Write the C-alpha cells for this entry.
Amino acid sequence: MQDILNDIVKAMNASTDRGQVADYIPQLAAIDPNQFGITVALPDGQVFSAGCAQKPFSIQSISKVFSLTLALGKIGDAVWAKVGREPSGDPFNSIVQLEHEHGKPRNPFINAGAIAIVDAIMMGHEPKELLAEILSFVRYIANDNSISIDEKVAQSELATGHRNSSLAHFMASFGNIEHDVDCVLGAYYHQCSIAMSCEQLAQAGLFLVSEGTNKSTGSRVVSSARARRINSLMLMCGHYDGSGEFAYRVGLPGKSGVGGGILAIAPNKASIAVWSPGLDKIGNSKLGTQALEMLVERTGWSIF
C-alpha cells in the first residue's frame, strides 16, 4: 500500500494541470495549489500516508457528511421532511430547483440541503452550542481532540456568502428554516471551516467502512443500516453534478469539498482522504479525483 501511495504522489506532483483554487472565498484563494496529500486508513488500525497528508485544510462540504450523521441520530427519518434524497444534477449553490420544489432541497449535500440540516439540528440552541456539538462529534469519530475550526476561513465565507444567504432566505420563505437565518448561516459557515489533515479525515471516515463501527477504536457511531444509507447518498450526491462522473471513474462513495479534499469510502476495506486545492469546473478536486481513480485501479476497491 505504501508503494502505491508513493507512486500516486509522484504522478500527482508531476501533473501540470492542477485545476483552480476556490477563488470566490478569499481565504481559500490564497492556498498554494502545488500541494497534494493522501491517506488510507484500514479498519485494523493501519494507516498509510504520502505527500502533505499531515497538513490541515478546510474540509468545507465534507463536513456535511458529519452533520447529516448527527441529524439522523438526533431526529431520525424526520430529516427527510426537510431535505430529499435525490441527486441534484445542478451546481452545489443552485437556487433553481428550490423554486420548483417549494423550498425543499434535493439532498443534504448541496448547500441548501446542508443549511437545512444545520437548522434541523440547532433545536433552539445558540450557534456556539451547536458548533461545539459538531466539533466534539468530529473529534470523537476521528479520535483526535486537536481538530479545530479555522476562524479566518469562516469569516471569509461570512463576508462573501451572498448566494448562501439567498438560499437560506428562500427556504425560510417556504417555512423550511425554523431558526434565525443569520444564526443558521453562521453555524453553517463555521461547520464548513473545520480544518483537518488527510490523516485526521481518513480516521473520521472509518465508521462508514465497517457498518457504522470504528473497529480501530471499538466505538459504534451509527447502525449498520444508517451507515449504508449515508454511503449511498455519498455515492449519488457527494460530488454535486459530477457525482455520476465520480461514480463512473472511481466507483466509491465519496464527498468532496471546495477546499480540495475528498473523503472516499471503500466498504469493508478502507477510508481514504485526499487533498489537492485545485478544483475542476464543477468544484471537485482535480488531482484528488485522479488519485482516487489510480488507487482503485491498483487495489480493485471499486464497489462495481
Summary: The domain at 2-60+196-299 is CATH 3.40.710.10 (Beta-lactamase). The chain is about 45% helix and 10% strand. The chain has two domains: 2-60+196-299, 61-192.
